[in-house]
Amino acid sequence: MVKNITIMKTRIILSAIxxxxxSSSCIKDASFVSREESRVTVDCLSQxxxxxIMALGQWHIDTNGIDWLSVSPENGTGDGVHFQLYxxxxxxxxxxxREGTIYICQGSTRCPVTVxxxxxxxxxxxxxxxxxxxxxxxxxTGIKIKYEYAAGDESVVLSAVLAGAAATGxxxxxxxxxxxxxxxxxxxxxxxxxxxxxxDFDVTVFADGKNVGSCKGLVAEYVAPVVVLEPSGLxxxxxxxxxxxxxxxxxxxxxxxxxxxxxxxPHILTTSGNTEARITTVIKSPVTTTLNDKTQCYxxxxxxxxYGLVEGDYWLATIPVMYISETTKISVEAAVxxxxxxxxxxxxxxxGNGSDWNEAPGAxxxxxSTDSWKAHYWNNKSSTVNAPTGTRKSYDPTxxxxxxxxxxxxxxxxxxxxGNLYLRLRALKYTYDLSGACSAKWTDLKVLEVNFAEx
Length: 455
Fold this sequence. Notes:
CATH topology of the largest domain: Jelly Rolls
Low-confidence stretches: 1-25, 249-259, 287-296, 382-389, 432-438
Number of helices: 1
Mean pLDDT: 81
Number of domains: 3
Strand content: over 45%
């Protein structure tokens, strides 16, 4: 049903067009030619106009010697049933209005089509200052001079006068412009200088010495844009398990991954992330202190190990960063362990200068019969040993009781445009059996991973 209605509508439209064509036809007999319009009017611009004709047999178009228009196609063959399209193209009219007649011909039949082109109306339509200027800032704007009905080959001398207190420090230079495009467009006069006074100023524009328009410009107070700089420098990861270290590392191997305190700059770079980030330990009298006749030193097993970490010593991470503020939020994941009698608890602290330290939030409370303390990381909670066999040298982030913990917090009190973010895990003397202070034992930093926290 819908298809039938569509067919009926199409036939009605075709019948209507046929009626228009036949009403202006030059029909004399069964061989006929008809045109859509007997008069076509256009403006002064160069342009093309499409017209319909219906013909039976061969036809052609006679342009009657008119040199400012052309037609395409110039000839064809019609079937007396279907419409055919031809195009009239006119050139730009620089002078007064003009008119010419072409003929659609078939045999002895000549159907006239008069083409009327209006006179040239090129003129400037207005002026405006493209953008605001800013006090004590070099101008980056200028004056737009809009026009219409251009041929595209015009050339004018442009100048402008700026007046008013807010124009102080500003200037324009006269020059010849040929930057016209056919039809409508705009020319541009740059404004130079640095305005010193806020407010409006007057602009008058001249083309070839003739006033073509006036407008006002504005000098506004400059307000520096707010630039949000994304923090950078993270992640920084020391994850020796992911890096493939396993077993006890030989003391003199792994490309410097082992060092002792004879090294003037003992440190380890990241296993992934920020390649400039480094980690070391800060311990008491590292060169001279001996515990159980062993000099304090580092090795791998597979995490970083220190022999003889005691209360107040700490693991220290130094991470080059940029654009850190108090609202920057980070996550810190770590796992620590120790042999029995080593430090069993660690406080996580952060700093923007390496001197003023802030305690990270989220520490857990611990108590015994004589004392209480806080810690972010601690060893296995066995009542007799701190690191059961098989636990100290493994890493299981799914089991917080096995030394792993993660903390997410903002860096309150820290602002770093370009510098270092410092993190440290500071050792406490307490172990779960509390039989004495920390002693000469191996202490492990299994993993430390620092990253920006996802909101």
